[in-house]
Write a structure and sequence with these properties.
Length: about 110
């Protein structure tokens, strides 16, 4: 069976975002970084990285598509303290789409 790898499209911020996420989650690393030339967006950066055992790719490929809150990634945590730590790191400088709190499906979720 093929793996599903989440692919994140950025205008020019792929490397910055990948390094940020790798710094937030333990057991995470950038596995490759390359530059492609001659694309419709010019030179673009492509990064592959692992976040806590899950594979991701990020590309800085121009403004053709924009991020949408219609897609979510779930990070299964061992404790409320772990949730708090991730929430603090991701919330700083970001936008809160779902406040940290109790929900019918989880007692501590954001």
């Amino acid at each position: 069976m093929n793996r599903i790898v989440s692919h994140l499209w950025f205008d020019r911020e792929a490397a910055e975002a990948a390094r940020f996420y790798v710094g937030v989650f333990p057991d995470s690393r950038i596995t490759s970084e390359s530059r492609m030339s001659g694309t419709p967006s010019g030179d673009v950066d492509l990064l592959s990285f692992e976040l806590a055992g899950s594979d991701f790719q990020a590309i800085s490929a121009g403004p053709y598509f924009k991020f949408t809150p219609a897609l979510s990634f779930l990070v299964a945590c061992e404790s409320a303290r772990e949730v708090d730590r991730y929430w603090e790191a991701l919330h700083e400088g970001g936008s809160e789409l779902m406040p940290l709190g109790a929900y019918p499906f989880s007692g501590h979720y954001a």
